[in-house]
Each structure stands twice: as structure tokens, then as C-alpha cells.
Request: fold
Amino acid sequence: MEIKDVRAGEVSYEKLIINPSWCKGCGICVAFCPKKVLSIENEKIVVNDIEKCIQCGMCELRCPDFAIYVGGKNNEKRA
Amino acid sequence: MPSTLVEKYFRTEKLPQIWCPGCGHGIITRSIASAIDQSGLDKDKVCIVSGIGCSSRAPGYMDFNTLHTTHGRALAFATGIKLANPEIKVIVITGDGDATAIGGNHLIHACRRNIGITTIVYNNNIYGMTGGQYSPTTPKGDKGTTAPFGNIDKSFDICSLASAAGATYTARATAYHANLLTTLVKNALANDGFSLVEAVSACPTYYGRKNKKGNAVEMMEWQKNNAVNVAAASKMTQEQLEGKFLIGEFKNKPEPEYTSEYQKIIDKLAKGR
Reply:
């Protein structure tokens, strides 16, 4: 399910939260996601198949622009 | 709302950063914030100091006491802060050119004194901000805008340089090995004396483009495939190590720290009154 936080410009997929306004489209998260959940469209990050996401946090760890992070866990209040 | 780590330690109203798409500096900066978080330091008792360069923009985004100083002089300013307030955790964020060329003299003397400063060198092998000139860490033969036919200088090994100059903690990790980097920065913060962590970054805009290293992802794949942990390297042959570089902890030998030694002199003289 997709929930849009209009105020912050973030898109929440519950397991994963992305902020397209901070994304520069470098593709690092896409390359290092072990489950191939992500892709780049129009130079911005998009979630292809949230069902495959295992919340390993590799995208959050290596995103240079803090534009993607795992929901729940430590970010519980935010999700 | 960003993640809890980013919200707690960054000035989110200043984000996104100025760095190019795919620049490793953002990953390294997040790792440092993560290490500070894991060390349980009080934000108001941390001061982050930087010089000039791409790397030195980092403290502007970080929500601590921060100071953006002149080129190469971050360690000189940091020495002053540490001597005036020894209880403050002083962290210097600097680049390869800022630390080893313009500020080379400050670096070796801060190492020699073993003053309690944690230095993180963002090494992208080039001067990014000023347009891709070769730096003291540009590998021999590689190109920069000021070395269009290849650089003939031998490059510095920053960790060996700092170890030899007297730093009591030296380590290296890369933007790809972000979790290792967090651990090493945490260990460096735990050392009372001078610590230096070299964070190998990636500059896809200048170093990558000039040397046909590919895009940001390919540069990070290169880090993944060519970094060898120092523990594993001891069991490898010379041929296996050909063209590789070492990551991990190189030196961790605590020695008396400068400001505490200085305090001893003050205490000794105060008794004589």
C-alpha cells in the first residue's frame, strides 16, 4: 500500500520510505539491493515490487542522499 | 520526515547536500553520524571542524557544534578547540588534498603530538571542488585536469603517513564498506589520542570520468572487489595482493594524550605556588 506524505514529499511503502525530492538518481541503491526491489525512472528512485523487500537496509546504508530508508524497526514512529 | 538517525544528527532543512549524484561523501557522512550515535556521545559535547573542499561541506549538514575553516587548517583550529576545552570530542572532517597537501604540515604535527582529535579523511583521489586537479593521493599514472597525460608523482598512503608521524589509531574503510567504516570511526572515537580514519570515497564526476572508472555504481563495485581486509591480507601471497588495497585497522596503540600531559604541567606548577 502506498501512502503519500504530501507535506514532506515522502512516499511510504510501509517497509520502505523514499523521498524523491532528495534523490539524485545515482542508482547505488538499485545496484546493491539484493532482491532487486528498486529501479530508476526519470532520474528518481521508484519501488517496483515492495513484496520482495526483506528490509535488509542496504539501500539506507549506501544512499548518499538519505533519500531512502527502511520503515518500522528504529524508524517505527515515522512509518 | 527522514529516518530517525538523519533527523537526530542532521540539519535536515539544509538537505539534500550539494554533492554530485553518486558521490561517496554522503555515505561516509552518514557512517560518521551512525558511529557518533553508537558511541552515545552528547551532541553538545561534540565539535566537528573542517577545512576547504567537497568533504569540508559535510559539517554544514551535521547538527553539532561545527566550524568551517580555511584551507588545510582544520587541524590547527581543532587543536585550539581541544586545548581550550579538553572535555569536548573534536572531530575533523577533511579531504585528501586538504589534509595531505595544503594541511600536510598540520597533519604530521597533530599526529606527532597525539592530541585527542579524531580525523576522518574523505579520500576521493582528486580535488573535486576546484575542477579535478590531481592531488597527493591520485595514483601514479592516473589523470587529472592538471595531468592530462598521467600523473608522474607517487601517491601518499595516508594511513602509513599518519602511523609513522605518531598517530595512535589509524584505519581505512571505503564508502562501499559503510558498516566497517562506522565500526572504525567508533573505535577511533574511543581512542583518547590522535586517531585517523581514511574513508575511500568515489568521485564519479572528476576522478571517475577522467580515468574511465565508470559511474558511481561501478566505482563502488571496484572498491568491493579490490579492498582486502588487513586480517585476510596476512594469509595472502604477494601475487594475490597485486593491485589490491588494504582496509581495516592498522594501528591501535594508545599513548598519553597531549591535553592531559599539558594539564599535568599546569597542576605541577600550581602546586609550587
Observations:
- The interface with chain A takes residues 1-6, 10, 15-17, 19-27, 30, 175-176, 178-179, 204, 215-217, 220-221 of chain B (CB under 8 Å).
